[in-house]
Every structure is written in structure tokens, then in C-alpha cells.
Write a structure and sequence with these properties.
832 residues, alpha+beta, Immunoglobulin-like, 5 domains, eight-stranded parallel β-sheet, globular, Ig-like_fold, signal, alpha-L-fucosidase, Glyco_hydro_29_N
């Protein structure tokens, strides 16, 4: 019986082998790749999730990124050929025959598909898999709308140092409770909590296992307590991390090798594995902006650690005060930061701007409730800002689409709701809760990254419970705008802005995209439109130059006394160019983005002046305002470089100088080689009926010391142009000296002038000043002198004069603390 059984088994095995061979199967061939959903357990084999964020898909390991994910198999006889037997990958992604998944995911979801691999002998096998296409990484942060940034640690006054100080810190923690902290975030209307868990004193608030020279760490795992408490209540936790450990210069912790970098690499990995949802990296990592050692926080090693160990972790790279909106470590960064200052005045509260970068990012603004980041023992030094000021600032930032992070310090004992801030926090919470959440931002059926050759219809979608309102005229949409009911016809290049409003929720963030349509008819129209009425662009040939950094090259202009409506922007034609280039217009004084569009050198005709003109949505540039207009350049197309020192003159706008913006359309970081390019502008004047012409609008203004030395703008934002831009919300003020002079050049002698007007700021004005005029910058006539001034509006009338130059010279206040605080000019006006 045993022998018969063995024979039967052999026959069955032979039949099975024949069956497998006939059907093309190989029992040794198997697909080793696993689904995206298993990533946390098997990161080495699982499909790296995609993110619907407008950039090319990348998969990450700690060695770095790849622009694809490689499906893997084993057994059989390589090489392998891959295909999809059934199901689908996320829209925008594709699988090639070598097993690489690549492309750009454009629709969220978990996509089930069956992968098939065939070896060189024809044997094949299949495996069902799931590929996750997740929302952009920082969508949860963007949706949060409001959160808290708590400043607390060993540095909290009375500040401590060294290991003994850490022990004292832990002993004095009598009111810290992680669950109460998380609940407090909820009670205040927040969805995210950021805490200083590794500040610049070098002390990490958890029992770190990364070795260091001084081992500055707590025994209690405060970080894990906070992570667990936040997650239990549905709150996200972001860890503040300072790469520099030398706030206390006499107690500086480093890795065992004496470097910050080695220590930071270990600490970041610990935090990622511990479960933080995000990292807020302080400004000593921003080596593109500051003279810090890159190796303190080596991004080329840090980013792979973050991305490989938690694909959904977000990080924000702080650019510091006055650099808000600068995009660093692009395209890997997930949050753009605006950080407010420590002054008690409203000017210290940052207001974010909408971003123009293509990657979907969150915008974060961090503003202080008090005038200090760290707790101060002396109650006289603690002074929360007025409630109306804070509410006003929150509204402005929400209008820009930013998530507002309110920052305040807590005392050494860990009391999350200090008495001195309690009333303000509760009132802010009341406002936040009434306005919490966003309606869903509309989505578009068309792409703004391609040029269409015929008319299109744009479909907008949002939540089924919402109504969509839109504009096509450049105005911000409101519930009074046109209600979306049917697809919007797009027959020419146009800018469409839209919001959605769900019942019981505030309006969504603004959808704002420019769609380019270049049919044969409007290409001809673009070529035929008349150029600027009083100017002809230079057509001489110039040696072309490429831009490997992707910088925007262009010009800074100031509009004259009459608004203009731009219809086309031109780039000088150079033979061989064939790429599509982005166009950006930003207001100079406040960096507000006005328009993004594009110019395709491959298809646009060449006008008589040698320029290729791209039609743009008609865009009004305001009288007196300064603007940056740039076109993104690249390493393949050439542009005509120009320092614009000898720029042509135009009747309705003045070219001030060259302009360079980063590849993300921001002013920093760039290499300032003083090279822009002369762009062609086609426009029409905007009639302003009945308005009295202010001859100072848009003219050349300068900040000077009273000895005529050049000065810079106070706080790097109060430019001279602000005094002649027609906007009473902007201010000119010189930095470095209290007495100073505003110098104005009208560019030509204006006749019959007989009236001037100065508007000082309410909290910054001159108590003793002089106003002078001159036709030649040599012979000066004094129009007014005033002492003991307390007026904010100064009207000056005089007999008619002919003049080109004016000076408003302040003599007092002369120092800090004096009445007036220093001259700030909101507006200087001149009339006949």
C-alpha cells in the first residue's frame, strides 16, 4: 500500500507540474511588493503612497527619493515584464513594463489593481494590490484653520542651565497635564498644537536615546505624553525643533563627534518614530537666508529620514521675521511660514499672502499674543495685545487662506491657561469657534499648466451641500457674485476665482487660477493689439542668457497718476526658444500676488517690436503703486538680460529697476546678479472721471538722513514708495535714525504747483519738520516750517511754483521715547 501511495503521489506531482507549465505559471515566481496600506509595517516592500499635490510622484527611502516606485518580484527567470491585469492606478500615474510606477497623481483615493509579472520564460503570476493617492500632505494643517504654539521648557523664567537645571525643571512641573493641554486646544477652537520640545538651549523634553556630550534631556517623556493626548482627542501635534543648541553659550550640547548635525539627525528620527505629525524647524536651518552652518541640519539627510519613516509627516522651515512667505527646501517643504515679531504694536502681527507656487501647500502665520516668546516672571513685562487687534489680524490671515497659530508662553509649572492670558484666550476662542472650519474649496476640471488651442468649458465642483460663487473680472468672489450653475465657457485666456459656501460654515478659501486659451483668432488678436501709446521697445539683438536656477527675470515698475489695465505681457523673441514660461505680477510694497499667467514661446507670434506677447486676463494696476513683473526662465530657453539702467521711458509707468524672484516667485533666496529683462506691456488707460490729479503719485521717492546719506526702510517694510502710492494703509519710514528726510523727484519740472498735503501715521509723526521745494535740486524754497506739531494731517497752500524736487525733513523726535515716536508718512500729495 505504501508503494502504491508513493506512485500516486508522484503521478499527481507530475500532473500538477505539467498543469502549471501549460498555464504559464511558475510556483517559484512571486510578487513581493505589498499595498500602500501596509507601509507602516513593511516600508521596504510597500508601495509608497502618492500625494495629490501638483508635483511629480516620488517614493522615498532613507537613501533619498526616486521619481518612481519599483514593483518587485522574485523567483522565475529575470528579466521581468510588468502589466496591470485588472483595476487601475490613481489617475495620472502609469506602470511601465519594467515595473516602474510614475507620473503625477491627480485624484485622491485608494485604488485597487492587480499587478501581473511575467518572467523571460513566459511564466507569470498576479497579485492584488492597493495604491493610495492621499491628499496633499499639509491639507489637514490647512483645514485646521486655528491652533496654538506653546513656548515652554527649561529656558522658561527663571531660566535654568545644565543637567542640574533639568532636574529642577522637572521638579517644578506641578500643573502640566498632557490631557488638559490637548483639551485646552479644543476648548480654544484649535485643531493643532505646536510645542517647543527641543529649543535652542539644547534640552530635549523626552528621554532621548541619541548620545550627546552633555545628555541634556528630561527623564519624563513629555513629548510622548503630548502626542498620545493629542491623538486621543483628534488633535495633531507639531514639534518645534531648533537646530542650534547654543542659546546658553556656556552650556552647549552636541553629538559625541562635536557637531550639531549628528545629534539632530538622531533626534529627528526619534521624533518621527515617536509619532509627531509635523516638525517646525527654526530659522537656523534656513541656510539659504542666513549665515548658518548647513551641517547643523543637513537637509539632504533629514528629508529622507522624515519621508521614509512617515510619508505623511509635514514640515515647515521657519524663515524668520521679515522673510515671511519665502519658500525654502522646495518642493519638499509642506508649509509656508509667516512669523510675527515681539513688538506690542499691530505692525508686529504678520499677515500672510496667498502663495503662487504650483505645489499644494499650507500657509501658516505665527503671531504672539504677548510681546515675548518666553515666560517672564515680572508681570510688568507681560502685556497681552488688545483683543480687537488680535481678532482683526486673525480675520486678515483667514482671508489670505492661512492657518492661524496663536503663540503664547506658559509659566514654569506648565499651567496651560495662565491667568494673565485667560480672558483674552477665552474671547478669542469664542470668535474662533463661531468661524471655525472652511467650506470645501472648489475644484476645476481644467488644468492651468497647459495651453488650450480651442474654447473650453470649465466645471467647478465642491461639496454637494455647497453653493459655488465665481468671478471672471479679477474681483474677489463673495456670496453676491455670480452663482455657479452650469460649466463656465472659457474661450480666451481668463482668470477665474471661486468660493464655495456650505450651510453653517464660513466660505471656503478662494480658488484662483488662470486658464490659457490660444486659438488662431486670439493669437492674431494678441499680435495686433497696440503697444504702449508713448513708447517703442528696443529691438536690437542682445546676447541671450539661460537661467539654470529657474529665477523669474523682469522689472519693477511704478504706475503714474492714472491706473492702467494690462492686456498682454511680452518677452523678447530669441531664436530656438520653445518652452512655456510662468508670468507673475506682485505688488512691491506688500508682496501681494496680483496675477499668475503663462507665455508659450513655441506657439506665440512675433510682434513688430521683436516680442512675443501673451494675452493675460485684463489686470488693473493702480495709480502710484509699484509692481514686480517677472517671467520664469530656465536652463534651455534664452532670455535677453538687461540691468535696466538705461530703460526706455514710458508715459504711463516708470521702470524703476530690474527684478529677480526665486523659482517660487518670492524675493528670497536669489543670487542678485542685478540682471532682469525688459518686458513689453500692452495696456489701456483706466478713466478716472472727476478725480483731481495727484502729481506725486508713483514718482521717485527716497529715504535719506538729514545730511543726505541714503537710509533703508524701517523694519525692512516701510519703503519710500509707500509715501506716494495713494494708499493710506502703507507708510514710509526710515530705519537707523529718528530725524530723517523724504526726498521726492517728480522726474520733470511741474508748473503751477500750489498745494501739498502730508498725512502722518497716527502713532508715528513728526513734531518738528520742514517742507522744501526746488526746480533743480540746488535752489530750495521753504514751503512750511512747523514746531510743536501734533497734527496728523498737514495741508500746505502756497503761491504757484514750478518744481521738480521736494523734501519733507523731520527734526523731532530725536530719540526713543519722545512724542511722535518718529516720522511715519502715510502719504505725500501734490496738486496744481
Amino acid at each position: 500500500m505504501k508503494r502504491i501511495s508513493e506512485l500516486m503521489s508522484g503521478i499527481l506531482f507530475t500532473l500538477l507540474a505539467v498543469s502549471l507549465s501549460v498555464s504559464g505559471q511558475n510556483p517559484n515566481l512571486q510578487i513581493t511588493t505589498t499595498s500602500s496600506s501596509e507601509y507602516s509595517k513593511s516600508p521596504k516592500t510597500s508601495i509608497y503612497p502618492a500625494f495629490v499635490d501638483n508635483i511629480i510622484y516620488q517614493s522615498w527611502t532613507e537613501a533619498g527619493p526616486s521619481p518612481f516606485f519599483q514593483l518587485t518580484a522574485q523567483g522565475g527567470t529575470p528579466p521581468y515584464t510588468w502589466s496591470i491585469a485588472s483595476g487601475n492606478l490613481p489617475k495620472g500615474l502609469r506602470l511601465d513594463k519594467t515595473g516602474k510606477i510614475q507620473g503625477m497623481a491627480s485624484k485622491e483615493g485608494n485604488y485597487a489593481f492587480t499587478a501581473q509579472v511575467t518572467d523571460s520564460k513566459g511564466a507569470s503570476i498576479t497579485k492584488p494590490l492597493v495604491f493610495e493617492a492621499a491628499p496633499y500632505r499639509s491639507k489637514w494643517f490647512s483645514d485646521a484653520k486655528f491652533g496654538l504654539f506653546i513656548q515652554w521648557g527649561v529656558f522658561t523664567q527663571p531660566s535654568l542651565k545644565g543637567k542640574d537645571g533639568i532636574a529642577q525643571f522637572e521638579k517644578r512641573i506641578t500643573k502640566f497635564n498632557a490631557d488638559e493641554w490637548a483639551q485646552n486646544v479644543i476648548d480654544l477652537g484649535g485643531k493643532v498644537l505646536t510645542v517647543t520640545i527641543n529649543a535652542g538651549d539644547g534640552v530635549r523634553l523626552w528621554p532621548s536615546t541619541t548620545p550627546s556630550k552633555l545628555e541634556l534631556k528630561t527623564q519624563r517623556n513629555l513629548v510622548k505624553e503630548l502626542i498620545d493626548a493629542c491623538h486621543k482627542k483628534g488633535i495633531k501635534f507639531v514639534a518645534y525643533f531648533a537646530p542650534d543648541k547654543a542659546w546658553n553659550k556656556d552650556v552647549v550640547d552636541t553629538g559625541l563627534d562635536g557637531t550639531y548635525g549628528t545629534l539632530n539627525l538622531g533626534l529627528i528620527k526619534e521624533l518621527v518614530l515617536m509619532g509627531v505629525d509635523g516638525l517646525w524647524i527654526d530659522m537656523t536651518s534656513a541656510t539659504e537666508l542666513y549665515n548658518f552652518d548647513y551641517n547643523w541640519f543637513p537637509w539632504n539627510k533629514m528629508i529622507p529620514i522624515m519621508r521614509a519613516n512617515n510619508p505623511k509627516l509635514i514640515f515647515a522651515n521657519n524663515t524668520g521675521i521679515y522673510n515671511g512667505g519665502t519658500v525654502l527646501q522646495y518642493p519638499n517643504t509642506d508649509v509656508i511660514i509667516y512669523e510675527g515679531g515681539t513688538s506690542q504694536f499691530e505692525t508686529a502681527l504678520e499677515v500672510a499672502k496667498p502663495t503662487t507656487v504650483k505645489k499644494k501647500l499650507a500657509i501658516e502665520v505665527d503671531n504672539l499674543l504677548d510681546n515675548t516668546w518666553s515666560w517672564r516672571e515680572d508681570p510688568k513685562l507681560r502685556n497681552p495685545k488688545p483683543l480687537d487687534m488680535m481678532i482683526r489680524n486673525i480675520k486678515k490671515n483667514w482671508e489670505a487662506g492661512a492657518t492661524y497659530i496663536l503663540s503664547y508662553p506658559v509659566p514654569a509649572n506648565g499651567d496651560i491657561l495662565p491667568e494673565i492670558y485667560r480672558d483674552e484666550l477665552k474671547q478669542i476662542a469664542s470668535f474662533v469657534k463661531k468661524n471655525q472650519g472652511w467650506s470645501e474649496t472648489p475644484r476645476a476640471s481644467l488644468s492651468d499648466t497647459i495651453d488650450y488651442d480651442k474654447a473650453q468649458k470649465l466645471t467647478l465642483t465642491a461639496s454637494a451641500r455647497s453653493k459655488i460663487y465665481y468671478t471672471v473680472d479679477g474681483n474677489r468672489p463673495t456670496t453676491a457674485s455670480k452663482l455657479y450653475k452650469t460649466p463656465i465657457p472659457v474661450s480666451k485666456t481668463c482668470r477665474i476665482q471661486a468660493i464655495s459656501v456650505e450651510a453653517g460654515k464660513p466660505a471656503s478659501k478662494v480658488f484662483d487660477q488662470t486658464f490659457t486659451v490660444l486659438t488662431n483668432s486670439n493669437r492674431t488678436a494678441a499680435n495686433a493689439r497696440s503697444a504702449a501709446p508713448a513708447a517703442t521697445l528696443a529691438t536690437k539683438e542682445a546676447a541671450g542668457k539661460t537661467e539654470p536656477n529657474g529665477f523669474y527675470r523682469g522689472m519693477r515698475i511704478t504706475v503714474g497718476p492714472t491706473p492702467i489695465r494690462l492686456t498682454d505681457i511680452g518677452r523678447k523673441y530669441l531664436q530656438g526658444n520653445k518652452d512655456r514660461h510662468s508670468i507673475v505680477i506682485r505688488r512691491f510694497t506688500d508682496d501681494q500676488p496680483i496675477l499668475t499667467a503663462s507665455l508659450n514661446t513655441a506657439i506665440l507670434p512675433i510682434a513688430d517690436d521683436g516680442y512675443q506677447y501673451a494675452p493675460i486676463p485684463p489686470t488693473v494696476l493702480e495709480a502710484g503703486k509699484a509692481y514686480l513683473i517677472g517671467i520664469s526662465e530656465n536652463a534651455t530657453d534664452q532670455f535677453a538680460p538687461d540691468d535696466l539702467k538705461n530703460a526706455p521711458s514710458f508715459a504711463d509707468y516708470r521702470i524703476v529697476q530690474y527684478s529677480i524672484l526665486s523659482a517660487q516667485g518670492t524675493r528670497k533666496p536669489i543670487v542678485d546678479d542685478k540682471t532682469g529683462q525688459l518686458l513689453g506691456l500692452k495696456y489701456e488707460k483706466v478713466n478716472v472721471s472727476g478725480a483731481k490729479i495727484n502729481l506725486a503719485l508713483g514718482k521717485q521717492a527716497f529715504l535719506r538722513a538729514n545730511n543726505e546719506a541714503a537710509l533703508g526702510p524701517a523694519s525692512q517694510i516701510y519703503f519710500a514708495e509707500n509715501a506716494v502710492d495713494g494708499d493710506f494703509n502703507t507708510m514710509a519710514a526710515a530705519g537707523g535714525q529718528y530725524p530723517w528726510t523724504l526726498f521726492l523727484d517728480l522726474t520733470k519740472v511741474e508748473t503751477g504747483l500750489k498745494q501739498a498735503k502730508i498725512t502722518f501715521a497716527q502713532t508715528a509723526y513728526s513734531t518738528e519738520f520742514q517742507v522744501m521745494a526746488s526746480p533743480d535740486n540746488k535752489t530750495w524754497t521753504t514751503l512750511m516750517e512747523k514746531k510743536n506739531n501734533s497734527d496728523r494731517t498737514i495741508d500746505i497752500k502756497f503761491d504757484p511754483i514750478d518744481a521738480r524736487y521736494f523734501k519733507i525733513r523731520s527734526f523731532k523726535p530725536e530719540k526713543q521715547g519722545e512724542t511722535g515716536r518718529g516720522m511715519g508718512i502715510m502719504e505725500f500729495e501734490l496738486y496744481r
